[in-house]
Amino acid sequence: MQEPEYRGGTNELWRRVIPALVGVLALLAIPKAAMTALLTPMLFDAPGSSSIISAYVMLIVLLAKPVVLLGTVTLSFLVFRRFSLARFAALLIMPALWWISFWASTAASA
């Protein structure tokens, strides 16, 4: 019989499972983010909306989402291949920073 690859138990397993899970979830979210980015010109359809600063902030945040997701997928692949604690922390912080900016821009526009 062959030995299992992860003999370190859960200590080694989380280093593989979490980056793979985050990468797959980010990869599945890219098409929706790209579609949302394509619909951002409709933010400026209403009369006078081009003079509101919150529309521009929301535009930047929505256009940044596919870029952040692509970066997350790339970073999760790098962490999956060769684990580094700094890369792992960046992998978990990148999507969180986007969500914080999204909710802050939503609250500012309300």
Q: What's the helix count?
A: 3
Query: Which structural class matches the secondary elements?
Result: mainly alpha
The proportion of residues forming helix, as a percent range, comes to over 70%
Radius of gyration using CA atoms only: 19 Å
User: What general outline do the C-alpha atoms trace?
Assistant: elongated
How many distinct beta strands?
A: 0
Unreliable runs: none
**What is the first-to-last residue Cα distance?**
62 Å
Mean pLDDT: 85
Strand content: under 5%
Q: What is the number of domains?
A: 1
Biggest sheet features: none
**Element order: H for helix, E for strand:** HHH
Protein model, in words:
With 110 residues, this protein is an all-alpha fold. It has one domain. It contains 3 helices and no strands. Helix 1 (10-38) runs antiparallel to helix 2 (53-81) and helix 2 (53-81) packs antiparallel against helix 3 (85-109). The longest helix has 29 residues, at 10-38. The model has no long low-confidence stretch (mean pLDDT 85).
Concise overview:
The chain is mostly helical and 110 residues long.
Overview features:
0% strand, 110 residues
Question: What's the helix and strand layout?
Answer:
Layout: H1 10-38, H2 53-81, H3 85-109
